[in-house]
């Protein structure tokens, strides 16, 4: 059998090149794929709230409503959809800035300042940062490992 006839037979038996193009997902717009993924995540969270945390049914309804709003506006009124998403992106950025400066910054300075002062009072130096003046060298002696395989496992 020559090559041309073999190609014709293969195209009839298993048209794999056409199968990729004929699937349903190939006809779906990329925006719709993204919308479906954006719908899948909050709906699954809403289902978890509804069935696992039974006392949170009101919150589940709110999650369902917001996800339905986002999906429907994404399908029919994209300008509302993108405006809503932009608003919440700016809102989330603002919450991040507030958490950083109002919560994390004071926690950092209070925690580490108190920790350092307590170590100074107790005269603890876990990092061995103090320089002994009578030492000949500042190298820390350690025992040599005889196992060569330990050099390949750094952690």
Describe how the helices and strands are arranged.
Layout: H1 3-13, H2 16-22, H3 24-27, H4 30-51, H5 57-76, H6 78-122
Helix pairs in contact: 4-5, 5-6
Shape verdict: flat
Low-confidence stretches: none
Count of beta strands: 0
N-to-C span: 60 Å
How helix-rich are the residues, as a percent range? over 70%
- Helix-strand pattern, N to C? HHHHHH
User: What structural category characterises the helix and strand content?
Assistant: mainly alpha
Number of helices: 6
- What fraction of the residues are assigned to beta strands by DSSP? under 5%
Characterization of this structure:
The chain contains 6 helices and no strands. With 155 residues, it is mostly helical. Helix 4 packs antiparallel against helix 5. The longest helix is centred in the middle third of the chain and has 45 residues. It is flat, with a radius of gyration of 31 Å. The mean pLDDT is 83.
